């Protein structure tokens, strides 16, 4: 089975089947655009294009996700305000700014509701971002099963790279080196005020619980004592 990949190549306004690469029997075309999950029109349009599309969403603790998102923006625009400033509409009152995209994206239940109007849950796989780091092969098994692929990627293909602090792919027999994700993945996050983390835990808790109920899976974000 060959997988043809199309990485963020389609402008959403022109999302059409004829812009996808041609596949023959035994091939799957994949398209990766994280923002589709939070784009209001995406489910409707993708459903119109191909209602049997399988959807894979990697979700991680929304607080860590927000800090990761902020870290990425900070690397491009070092002059932006602190995370703590951006997170609140009114910090004295503890009023979270849910319209800040770094926080809004993590309200997974809200976005999923929109997708479930068009796609059954059986067509959506939620991959745990935490387990993708602690047990990449385990998560890849779920992905392969979900896509109806033979289980090829397994434990033996990964090793933990101490320098990177993340799992990487071992050197394939026909290639020159091991393969870690690039420098922009796995950045060190700034230390965030613990009170702000606490406030965010309270903010996300009901949405996380709603998300567990909708997906039938407990991602254990309530149990995590500390954010990275
Ligand atoms: N194996 C491996 N190596 C490196 N990084 C890993 C890996 N597995 C998961 N992650 C986590 O992926 C996070 C970056 O992915 P993104 O979703 O931000 O990527 S993207 O920009 O949307 O394409 C990145 O987030 P940050 O730690 O905030 O950089 C990582 O935590």
UniProtKB/TrEMBL annotation:
Coiled coil: none annotated. This is Sulfotransferase. Its EC number is 2.8.2.-. Belongs to the sulfotransferase 1 family. Disulfide bonds join 168-180. InterPro entries: NST/OST, P-loop_NTPase, Sulfotransferase_dom. One of its GO terms (molecular function) is [heparan sulfate]-glucosamine 3-sulfotransferase activity. The gene is LOC115476097. Keywords: Disulfide bond, Glycoprotein, Transferase. It comes from the Eukaryota. PANTHER family: HEPARAN SULFATE GLUCOSAMINE 3-O-SULFOTRANSFERASE 4, HEPARAN SULFATE SULFOTRANSFERASE. It is an enzyme of class 2 (transferase). 3'-phosphoadenylyl sulfate binds at residues 60, 68, 185-189. Residues 46-205 form the Sulfotransferase domain. It holds the Pfam family Sulfotransfer_1.
